[in-house]
């Protein structure tokens, strides 16, 4: 009820392509935006650009900050999954910055290896686990207690 009232007050449509995951609910969004990735890839596919556009539209407004968290599926080593998770988060953050979100308002994180959206045994590929979640928080800046890496643009490839 409160979320619906907040959404009505801000007149923002819900983020597209966002599964109904429960958890950290934002005042500006009905749920985190999610971007999914091909196996072994950190490339943001074109079909996810509308979700990034929607998130950037909200996040670029003054007084908002963003946590971009990358995840992997249950394949590969824990260290390799942590690295690709962070690279996926950085790729999405790069896209947000090109759409007007200030880099100083973005914090990057790699999710825990076992934090699977769809529970699977080790070695099983699942696209919904290879994701980036974009959380947008209203407020004066990144909370000091929030753990993550401040955004810096990816080096040119």
From TrEMBL:
<keyword id="KW-0998">Cell outer membrane</keyword>
<protein>
    <recommendedName>
        <fullName>OmpA-like domain-containing protein</fullName>
    </recommendedName>
</protein>
<dbReference type="InterPro" id="IPR006664">
    <property type="entry name" value="OMP_bac"/>
</dbReference>
<keyword id="KW-0472">Membrane</keyword>
<dbReference type="InterPro" id="IPR036737">
    <property type="entry name" value="OmpA-like_sf"/>
</dbReference>
<dbReference type="InterPro" id="IPR050330">
    <property type="entry name" value="Bact_OuterMem_StrucFunc"/>
</dbReference>
<dbReference type="Pfam" id="PF00691">
    <property type="entry name" value="OmpA"/>
</dbReference>
<dbReference type="InterPro" id="IPR006665">
    <property type="entry name" value="OmpA-like"/>
</dbReference>
<feature type="domain" description="OmpA-like">
    <location>
        <begin position="25"/>
        <end position="140"/>
    </location>
</feature>
């Amino acid at each position: 009820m409160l979320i619906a009232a907040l959404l009505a007050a801000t007149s923002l449509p819900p983020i597209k392509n966002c599964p109904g995951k429960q958890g950290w609910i934002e005042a500006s969004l009905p749920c985190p935006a999610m971007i999914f990735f091909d196996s072994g890839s950190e490339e943001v596919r074109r079909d996810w650009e509308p979700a990034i556009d929607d998130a950037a539209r909200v996040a670029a407004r003054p007084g908002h900050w963003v946590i971009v968290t990358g995840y992997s599926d249950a394949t590969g080593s824990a260290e390799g999954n942590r690295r690709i998770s962070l690279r996926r988060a950085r790729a999405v953050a790069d896209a947000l910055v090109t759409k007007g979100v200030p880099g100083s308002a973005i914090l990057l994180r790699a999710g825990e290896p076992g934090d699977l959206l769809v529970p699977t045994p080790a070695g099983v590929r699942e696209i919904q686990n290879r994701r980036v979640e974009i959380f947008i928080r209203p407020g004066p800046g990144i909370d000091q207690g929030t753990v993550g890496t401040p955004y810096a643009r990816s080096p040119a490839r």
